[in-house]
Description:
Chain A has one helix and nine strands. Chain A is mainly beta. Chain A has one domain. Chains A and B meet through helix 1, strand 7, strand 8 and strand 9 of A and helix 1 and strand 4 of B.
Amino acid sequence: MSKRLLTITTLTGALILAGCGQPGKVTGGGTMHSAGGSDKSVFTFHADSCDEGQVKGSMNLHDSSALDFEDVNGVKLKADVDSTYFCSGDLDFDAPLCACSEGFQEVNFTYQSTNPKTDGGGQGIACLGDFGEKGNSDLKGAAIISISTGPYSGYYNVGTVSGNVQQHSCPAE
Amino acid sequence: MMKLNKIAVAVTMAAGLSVLPVSAAKLGENLMGDRFIIHAKSGQMEALKQALVDAGVTINVEMNSISAISATINPSAYQALRGNKNIAEIEIDAKRYFATQGNPEVKSIAPESHLDDYGNWGDTDFIPWGIEAVQGMEVSPDANNPRTVCIVDTGYDLGHWDLQAEKVSGDSEGAGDWFEDGHGHGTHVAGTIAAKGGNSGVVGMIDDSSANLHIVRVFDSGGGFVYASDLVGAVNDCAAAGAHVVNMSLGGILHTKAEARGFEKLRKSGVLMIAAAGNDGNATHNYPASYDAVMSVGAVARSLDVASFTQYTSQVEIAGPGVNVISTYPGGYHAVMAGTSMATPHVVGTAALVWSHFPQCSNWDIRNALRQTAMDVGAAGKDYYSGYGMVQAKDAIDYLSANGCSGQTCKGNECKVD
């Protein structure tokens, strides 16, 4: 292997290792399997960090048969987006590190329960992968939703998404 | 352009150029790869195949029964395929891993040896607690009507002194020869189903070597993973070999339409497919276990408590012994292993044993009998950890003797029994 190729290969590994968050935008909604339950989990979201210094967005999630929350008729919440990144392999020491893997749009959110049986709120993270949508010769997506605090602490669901999940590049300046 | 970047990253990672993050694993890691399943629109399979060839795509698996193709797609090929009118849908070709908990505890024993730790090992066969717990010692298979059991796993240590060498066939799927097992998982599973009796070894559910075994090796000696598309092909190979029951001690988190459709077709054709519920100890679906066409198996310990690692879902249908399970291991050894991987062959062996007494029964009849006669464990009644309970061989035979067989397959809600 030439020294140049070795350098490029090593650099590529370093770039992917970095996994930095870049400004990005994701919109849409869809369904995936419940967190262990028999019904579908339904969610909608939009999250946008393309305007420098401005983060916009909200998210709704309803997993009526989530097994760990069966006693309160599942998980139902509305969330505001705290931060969102496209998790790329680009090297940028000033950029935040992603918790999601490369290729996903990471959405960190603060939620409030909208379930009449559960009060309060907390925080969580979603990783949304726009691998396409049905009927568009495109790829189906995947989503990971993990809640760390509040009444739905411990909720974790990952699966293939049926629906319309779209990641958007930020407009060129 | 973003999608192309994502695919490029995925392809690069799969090419081995990446380094795993030093920090904790990231969410979604290993979900993506460079393989995708492309579903053809109705009647467009050949046109789709040609389009893939024209785009320079590497075709991995052709799944003609469900009109889909697994292919390795790079960014330029993806660009060429976008908007192709022959494509109905593209999905990730999900990865499946075997479902063992912890490392095996290997026992070096010869037939004349004794196993003090596990008792009763001497001149007679050693009876694993799990075989006894599922009533495996209370009934024998009907050797006149042997069932064919297919094991999709790491291979089979053909020549192991405690495993049958006759009536064993197999397919090698590119992960190594089916008649070898450099890992041990598949040989352990096989022993629970069919370890020989009468030789001072362990016994399996079918201990008279009457079962027909078909081995499909999909995992290499390092374990690794198998793609969903390859798994569909493997189980189709099982069916082609005449399998009645299929053991899948494996799983993964992403649902694929290819598997759901492929396994549903096989279920309708009469195959009984049984898979591990998973070992993450949380409320997460695991596939193929969570497909309706497949029986999902949870694990219980010798105390009959549910194993702490068992994944619990609405799809868990039945349970089997999955803790401290001793069975055959490559090299003439035996090993103690744990996991829903180990629970699954207890159910598979029971199904094959019961079915041998009622060859006129359908896959649905056997599945129903196992559910109806399972021993309630864990929470009272059907629960998310053990389903209807721990499988019971004699009770299932008694149930079918009393109630007979419908001989029919089920469809949709007909498959549900409450």
